[in-house]
Amino acid sequence: MIECKNVSIGFQDNILLQGFDLVVEEREKVVLDWPSGKGKSSLVKAILGLVKPLEGEILFNGETVAPSTISKVRQSISYVSQDVDLPEMSIMDFIKEVYGYKANRHLEYREEKWVETLQRFGLPQKVLHQKTMDLSGGERQRFGLVLAEMLERKVWILDEVVSGLDEKRKEDAVDFILSKEDTTMILISHDPIWNDKKVRKVDYQ
Prior knowledge:
Elements: E1 2-11, E2 14-24, E3 29-32, H1 40-47, E4 55-60, E5 63-64, H2 70-75, E6 77-80, H3 91-100, H4 111-120, H5 137-151, E7 155-159, H6 167-179, E8 184-188, E9 200-202
Parallel strand pairs: 3-8, 3-9, 6-7, 7-8
Antiparallel strand pairs: 1-2, 1-4, 4-5
Helix pairs in contact: 4-5
């Protein structure tokens, strides 16, 4: 489903990732686990078409990630970053804005489903009526996962999304992520919580 062929990422005087190969099969859960500053976040941005590799090729469903295919790629992926960046507005206005994007217009807003999913992540219904700036770091991470679920994308890319959670909420989030059996996932994480989970860990030296 996602394939990196001999990918190098960085700058001419600072190569973060060199000659990297990776194949992620459909429905697979892959954890990228190597030292910080070695191109993990840059790699997922390259998969999203936000960063151009210095060398190599990235394929999504057999097609090269390029300007002509970026729109199709992004419509298939939910990306949740470590520091979930939300515009300063009400949560409800933000949701309406997201549902208004061309890629999401086929979705129907169902408040009961939103409330159910928020509660699964320990977020109360009143969050829908709060301002984005009122959410803590951990709440933003959990809201990012809720949004990923509600957008119904086939691929999730999650960058350190449990790093700001306490142990109980972390376990709940990981259990939820792994329950998404039909969803392909690439996760960036150093957390040992993944060590005994049904994921494939990928290292790079």
